[in-house]
Structures are given as structure tokens and as C-alpha cells.
Amino acid sequence: MTPPPDAAAAPFSAWYRCAEGCDFRAELTEVVYRCPRCQGLLEVEHDVAALRRRGPEEWKALFDQRYRRAPWPFGSGVWGKKEWVYPQLAAANVVSMAEGASPLLRLDGYAREIGLDEVWLKECGVTHTGSFKDLGMTVLVSAVKEMRARGRAIRAVACASTGDTSAALAAYCAADGIPSVVLLPRGKVTVAQLVQPIANGALVLELDTDFDGCMRVVQELSRTPDIYLANSMNSLRIEGQKTLSVELVQQLDWTVPDWVVIPGGNLGNASAVGRGFLLMRELGVIDRLPRLVVAQAEQANPLYRAVAAAGGRPSASLEVPPVTARKTLASAIQIGAPVSSRRALRALEALDGIVEQAGEQELADAAARADRHGAFSCPHTGVALAVLEKLAARGTIRRGERVAVISTAHGLKFSDFKVGYHEGTLPGLSSRLRNPSVPVAATLGAVQDAIARRFPAGGAR
């Protein structure tokens, strides 16, 4: 296979612009996160006219040719779509760990149990650090490598995190020897999440606050020009994460699901999904959009509250007042002041979206229910599944419609949640679908008796 040309020689380009409509533009190598005029977040804008010079079928063929097989780094699920992500970046400055290309599982048994025909689970946690955060972090860290190669002094890259962002940042920075700093809320991330950035050599700082407190500190820290901000308010992250939508359609043979359901915390992911679909439609790769569902934990639900107060119709003009996020099993989305709320609202408005919430019992049971059909769901995916079940029960999502649920992290990062459910020890919750292990004597007879009790002879084949 002929290696793809270096994008630096390709006739495509992208830049920052103000998401709120100000006449502000900046190069992607500048250290800037907000519009200096209105303080709104920035978005990456692509030269769509140039991208249109290549037809939809050509884009599909190119992406299919590269997918999981092109010479490094173009076999990556992100960098195989480099022209749509960061076209000017020198290929030599890509920092990739084979992100993306994650499995798309068809859960027929689960779909039947909840009264639907077709449910797909996009397993974004099957990636290097175990979460979808890798999709955005490869772009951000590659951009930092590009800036450093051009002589810009960046001492370290920093983020606030509920666990997954810090793991991705630390791993990608370690891959290129770039110093990283992560701010975590003390006692509010799992051991697995805490040990990941420690193992990858990051400076791990545990703050006596919640995620929102960590976010305030890291934004203040990043005012120092040589400390580069890695949270999703940095729109380079969104560009990598939007490839999730492209890959999903690609895995469905370039067809569009009727619904996409995604858990929402800081809400960059919802924005990214919307951007991916909108770009595909703009370039003629798809001819329709799915409906987007953002699922929030009831304990941390500022977007849900704002949309519900507006009659249930998301609008880009809505204000999302911050709330105090309460403790939830879905710790990665325990966020009361999401920085990307306006971005998410724009995506929801464009994709005729819905915002719904799920309680602790609902998310725990939904995760267990999907697991019984072959999944291994993290609690955040449990939120998305619980919301799907609600919408199916109401008839909002109907039989005959294809649904894709975005699983944002690997269940193994939340083993305490899984074990606690099946042991019946999650505080305040009942484990309706628990499946505890069974102690038996070390004899053939005892094992046969246990099998007979669980699976009586003559049962269904």
C-alpha cells in the first residue's frame, strides 16, 4: 500500500475561530483557548471548500483503505482521517498509540429484552488507556509536539480530571517525553484510574475538592503560557473525538443510525459527536443525521435541568447554571459546571436531540442487564443504557430503529462497581440482577449439584 502523503503538502487547512461568532481567527499552533473578545470557547474550522474537491465516495474509499492497516500513523482510527482533524500537522509530529478502531458490538439479546430490534454498543474503552479520551488526546499531544518542534516553549501539559483524561494525557505525553501534570479530586477516582498517570510518570496532584474545583485551578494555572491546557475546553481534543462519529458510520457500512446515546459530564463528547456527523453531511458522505441523546447522572445533571426547565427542547441560546454535583457511581461525569455546555447544546439543536437523566439504581441495573448479554459496562455507560431503556419504555425510541450507544470507558477500570453490584454491597442500592460466585466443596458431586441447581436437566437448549 502506498503511504499517504504528508498532510503538510496536502491542500487542506484548519484554524481556530470563535464559536460564538466573533471575527476572531488564530492558527492551531497558538496557545489560545478562548476568544479574547467575548471569552467564548473556540472551535476548529476546516476549509470545507477544499475538502469538497474530493468527492464523498473518494473519502469513503480513502478512509476504508487506511482503516487499521495503513502505514503508521494512518492506521489509527483518528489519523486515518487526518485531513478532517489537523491537516497541516507534520506526520513526523503525530503521537499515536493506535487509538480508535474500537469494536462495535451488536447486542441483540439486550435489544429484545428492552423492547427494541437493534442496539449497537460502540466500545470506545477498548483503546490504549481504556477510554474514549485517547481519541482527543492524540491530537492535543501531537499539536504540542508540533509547537515544541517549532520552538514554542511548553514546559508541561496539564489537565483536571475525574480519572480518564489524566490517564490519556499521561500516556501520550510519556510516549514523546513531554512532562504532564494532572489535578485529581482526592478520593474521588478509582485506584485503577489513579495508578495510570502515576505509572506513566505524570506529576499527580490530589486536591481536596471535586472535579469542578480542580478545573478552576487548572484554568488559572494555564494562564502561564508555558503550561498548556489539555481539558476539552481546548478544541483540539474535540477534533479527535469527532472521529468517533465517522468511525461509527464507517463500521455500519457508511449508514447512519437513527439514534446515538452518549453519557454527558463536561459535555465535550456530545459536542464532538455532533461535529462529526455535521461534517460528514456537509461533505456529502451521509445524507441525514441521527438524533442525539445526552444522558446525565441524576446526581450531576446541570444540562438536564436546564433543558427540562426550557420545556425539554435543547437550544444553543439556553443558559446552563452550574449545580453542586453529588456523589455518583458514574464518577467520571460527576461534574456540576460543564465547560462545553454551549457546544453540546448546539449539537443537540442541530441533531434534534434529547437530554435525559438516570438515577443510581437505574444505571447500576442497566449496566448489569447489558453485561448479561455480553457487554462489560462502566457506570457511565450504565447511565446511557438506563436512559435508552427509559426512552424505549416511553416509545420515544421504537422498534425498527437502529440505536448506537457510546461506551466511554472499559468496565475493568471500575471493578469495585462491578464487584459491589454482584456482591450486593453498593450502598443504598439493591442488586436485582446480581450473580454472585458460589462456594462449593472440591468434589465432582458438589460441582454437578451446583450445575443442576442452576441449569436443570431438560432445560431450554
Summarize the entry for a quick read.
The chain is 36% helix and 14% strand. It contains 16 helices and 13 strands.
Note down, in words, how this protein is organized.
By secondary structure, the chain is an alpha/beta fold. It has a domain at 104-130 and 238-419: Rossmann fold, CATH 3.40.50.1100. Helices cover 36% and strands 14% of the residues. The protein is built from 16 helices and 13 strands. The chain has helices spanning 48-51, 56-66, 108-113, 133-149, 164-176, 191-199, 211-221, 235-241, 243-251, 268-282, 302-309, 341-350, 360-371, 379-394, 415-423, 444-454, and strands spanning 14-18, 25-26, 42-46, 104-106, 118-123, 156-160, 180-185, 203-207, 227-229, 259-263, 291-297, 354-358, 402-407. The strands form three sheets. The protein has a six-stranded mixed β-sheet, sandwiched between helices. Helix 4 runs parallel beside helix 5, helix 5 runs parallel beside helix 6 and helix 8 (235-241) packs across helix 10. The radius of gyration is 22 Å and the shape is globular. The N and C termini lie far apart (47 Å). The model is unreliable at 1-9 (pLDDT under 50).
Can you tag this structure with a few keywords?
461 residues; 4-stranded parallel sheet; Rossmann fold
Mean pLDDT: 94
The percentage helix is 25-40%
Strand element count: 13
Order of adjacent strands in the largest pleated sheet: 4-5-13-10-11-12
- At the fold tier of CATH, the topology name of the domain at 104-130 and 238-419 is Rossmann fold
Shape: globular
> What's the helix count?
16
State the order of secondary-structure elements, H for helix, E for strand. Answer: EEEHHEHEHEHEHEHEHHEHEHHEHHEHH
Strand content: 5-15%
N/C terminus separation: 47 Å
Q: Return the CATH class of the domain at 104-130 and 238-419.
A: Alpha Beta
Query: What's the gyration radius in Å?
Result: 22 Å
User: What is the name of the CATH architecture of the domain at 104-130 and 238-419?
Assistant: 3-Layer(aba) Sandwich
Structural class: alpha/beta
Low-confidence stretches: 1-9
Largest sheet, in brief, is: 6 strands, mixed
